[in-house]
Amino acid sequence: MYKLYTRPGSGGFVVEAALALANAPFEQIDVPKTDRPDPAFLDISPLNQVPVLTLPDGRSMTESAAICILLAERHPEAGLAPAAGAPARAEFLRWMAFMSSALYPAVLRFYYANRYTSDPDGTKAVKQAAIAEMDLGFAVLETALEGRDWLVGETMSLADIYLVMLIAWHPDIDKARTTWPNVERLRARLRDHKLMKELNTTHEMWPI
Fold first, then answer.
1. Within the chain, where are the H helices?
2. What is the residue-wise DSSP string for 83-116?
3. Overall pTM surpassing 0.70 (yes/no)
4. C-alpha angle with apex 142: 138 to 144, nearest 5 degrees?
5. Are 185 and 103 members of one domain?
6. Are residues 73 and 12 in the same domain?
7. pLDDT tens per residue across all 208 residues of the chain
8. What are phi and psi of 118, to 5 degrees?
């Protein structure tokens, strides 16, 4: 059985979705936000971040995008991602890497600006730069979604859920909804998904 360390409103949202879509049994452990984490948790998450997924063999892994890719590989019957030999597989890997390396860090810089400057008065500039980077990333994904129902392939994948999770963290969601209509179209579609609704009751990614 898997073991998922997570907390509401975190990147655990997409990992919970992946496990549920795969019908994979897992034990969920909520990790509180604290400056003094349990040393045992730091052993599996040295940066004190969630999500962390402990695999059935006892090994643990961090990084939500990597976890999603692994779960898609381990549960191919669930259709969490295009198959390894499918043409859309390259797109899936590209966008998962793009979102986790360009967009997710920008989100973190906005919400944890104090971690990215030693200047007590510098957090405003860090946040402004983070928003600019977010906006650039979402503009790229807006173009990628033009004329498409899903970010990759012909059906929903974890890349779509990952994108919807990220856009929910934009500090100006009203601006996001009008600026990137293709992203908003995808977000609206997933908001009506039964599983996304269930997860939203605890994660509160968007107003119910």
1. 12-21, 39-44, 64-74, 88-98, 104-111, 123-144, 158-168, 173-179, 181-191, 194-203
2. -TTSTHHHHHHHHHHHIIIIIHHHHHHHHTGGGG
3. yes
4. 115
5. yes
6. yes
7. 999 999 999 999 999 999 999 999 999 999 998 878 889 999 999 999 999 999 999 999 999 999 999 999 999 999 999 999 999 999 999 999 999 999 999 999 999 999 999 998 999 999 999 999 999 999 999 999 999 999 999 999 999 999 999 999 999 999 999 999 999 999 999 999 999 999 999 999 988 6
8. -95, 0
**Closest alpha carbon to 60 in 91, 104, 27:** 27
Angle at CA 46, nearest 5°, toward 40 and 52? 75
Burial of 129 (0-12, 13-18, 19+ CB in 10 A): middle
Residues in the chain: 208
- Containing domain of residue 184, as a range? 88-193
Structure tokens that stand for 71 in this block: 């779960």
**Is the Cβ–Cβ distance between 60 and 52 less than 8 Å?**
yes
Distance CA 183, CA 176 (A): 8
What strands, in cross-sheet order, belong to the sheet with 2-6? 26-30, 2-6, 52-54, 60-61
Q: Looking at 30, 49, 78, which one is the last position of a domain?
A: 78
What's the number of domains the chain is made of?
A: 2
Which residue from 130, 25, 19 is spatially nearest to 64, judged by alpha carbons? Answer: 19
